[in-house]
Each structure stands twice: as C-alpha cells, then as structure tokens.
Design brief:
Blueprint: H1 9-15, H2 20-28, E1 47-49, E2 52-62, E3 65-74, E4 80-86, E5 93-95, E6 102-107, E7 113-118, E8 121-126, E9 130-138, E10 145-156, E11 160-171, H3 181-188, E12 192-194, E13 203-212, E14 215-223, E15 231-235, E16 247-250, E17 256-261, E18 276-282, E19 285-291
Parallel strand pairs: 12-19
Antiparallel strand pairs: 1-2, 2-3, 3-9, 4-8, 5-10, 6-9, 7-8, 10-11, 13-14, 14-17, 15-18, 16-17, 18-19
Length: about 300
C-alpha cells in the first residue's frame, strides 16, 4: 500500500499515531475535513473525505451504556483499515478528548478481510461501507452527552491517502432514537468471543509453537465451514507486535491449518508466555479467541 508513494510497516505503520508531517500531507491532498455541526438527534452531519464520508450515529441506552457507532461510507474501489492493518497501512485513531460527560468509549471491530497489495504485501481492512460499533459510557447518565471525535484514518484506492474528520453529536440523557439497522447489523458482524477448544462449527482448537524446515512458527488448528476461504489474523498484546499474516493449508482430521512465522516479536518478549488475540473469519461467522501458545 502506498501513501503518496509507499506506506511501509517500518515507517508509517510502526509510527502508528499520525503526526504533523502526516497531517501536512493530508492538507496537500485535500483531505483535511471540516468540523460538522453538533445535532440533538441520533446522527451527526456527514463529513466528506476523498474516498467517502464519515458520521457518528447513536442509538439506545441499556445498562448505563449508549450504543453508538462511527459510520464510514466508501466510494467503489476504495478501502480503509482494521485495528491491525497488516503489512502496511494506517489504523484508525480516535480522539474523544473534546467530549463532555464522557467516561469511556470502547470500539468494536466488525470482521475484516485480507487484501493482496502486490509484491507479497497484504493489508487488513474493509472495502465496503461499514459501521464501527461503540459502547459509550457517560459519567452521569442523567445528563446530556456531548460526543466530539477527531478521527485520523486512511482511505485507499491505488494510493493511500490520510484523512481527518471532526465529528460532533449531542445525545440526550437516556439515549437517542432506537438503533438504526446499520448499527444493529454492525454489532452482529463483530466476532464472537470464544474459548480455545470451544465446540462449534467455527473455532480454534490448538495454538502450538513448532518448527517448519527449521524455522520457528506458530501452528494453529481451526475448525471451519469454508476451508478454502477462511482466514485468520493474529495480534500481540500491544502495537509493538507485528506478527505476519498466517498461511492457510489443510490440517489433520479435516481441520484448517494456519502457520505463522515467529517474526515481528518485540525484543525481550517471550511469545510462549504471551496471550495472543486470534480472529478467525469463516464466511458469515467469526470468532475471537485469546490463547497462549503451547510447546
């Protein structure tokens, strides 16, 4: 993937947080977006980007938390990135510091897809309109919630372009209108939490450290309904980790085998003692498993 020229893991990806230089590039390519006006309804104004548009949406409150989302519309042929963007790319960055009466925001991630960027490089993200679900907790549920988000992200067609959106949405105490269909669908597309070895048509049975032709690898055995298209994404506990994307093959007893070279591990870290987050995407099903490799 390219940012003007090439957006490499060793440069922009490892930097992660967009700095002044990246914001300057955004200005040159015309993607520095204007703030939207706050609304007292269930959705903010759309803010346009070079490859699409972004807005905030809010639904109902349950148990003191508000269902909300960041809705991103992409032009045909464009894409944006997942929380771990793969070999190259820019993950979205969320800044809620301008909000009022806000205690916390948790971002949920719909199941992503792998994209072949050529030259043996792969990125992870979305090539369709999407909503990133949010679980928003106010400090005082009896008061109005003023959400203000600065979103730094990237949209890509043939080249990758940085974008920034300033969004604002006022939500009355007790929540806004009932959740819209897009928000409901997005919540349903978030991978289900599952235990290692849990029963079901889609799941992960074993995560083992071994060797392949003398090279240390992770060997991950999965149950899938779509063995020829299922995919797996493996993340470490923080952004210092940059594990390669797995290689899929047929496993024993009808399982799907994913092999991950042990690379991109931070200096001094012991992968055998580190819980990894594994996201298995199997057609319309997806699960997320936390597992520490065995030997």
């Amino acid at each position: 993937m390219r940012l003007g020229m090439m957006c490499s893991r060793s440069s922009l990806l490892r930097t992660r947080s967009p700095g002044p230089a990246l914001r300057l590039v955004a200005g040159f390519v015309g993607l520095l977006l204007l703030p939207s006006a706050a609304l007292a309804g269930a959705e903010s104004d759309w803010v346009s980007s070079g490859g699409g548009a972004v807005r905030l949406v809010a639904g109902a409150t349950a148990g003191g938390a508000l269902d909300a989302g960041v809705e991103i519309r992409l032009q045909p042929g464009w894409k944006t990135y997942w929380r771990y963007p793969g070999d190259s790319g820019v993950p979205p960055r969320f800044d809620w510091s301008g909000s009022e009466n806000l205690a916390s925001v948790a971002v949920k991630w719909p199941a992503p897809h792998r994209f072949d960027d050529g030259g043996g490089s792969y990125s992870i993200g979305y090539k369709r309109d999407l909503v990133l679900p949010l679980v928003v907790t106010p400090k005082d549920p009896a008061r109005k919630l003023a959400l203000k988000l600065t979103l730094d992200f990237a949209v890509c067609e043939k080249i990758c372009q940085p974008a920034r959106a300033e969004l604002a949405l006022d939500v009355p105490a007790g929540g806004a209108a009932p959740s819209n269909p897009e928000l409901v669908a997005a919540q349903a597309s978030v991978p289900a939490q599952a235990a290692l070895g849990a029963a079901g048509p889609t799941g992960i049975g074993r995560v083992q450290m071994t060797e392949d032709d003398g090279v240390p690898v992770l060997r991950i055995e999965a149950r899938t309904a779509h063995a020829e298209s299922a995919d797996l994404f493996v993340e470490g506990p923080n952004e210092d980790w940059a594990l390669p994307l797995p290689i899929r093959s047929a496993g024993p007893d009808g399982t799907t085998l994913f092999t991950v070279p042990i690379d991109g591990v931070p200096k001094g870290a012991d992968i055998a003692k580190t819980p990894l987050r594994l996201t298995l995407v199997d057609g319309e099903r997806a699960v997320e498993v936390e597992a520490t490799p065995s030997r």
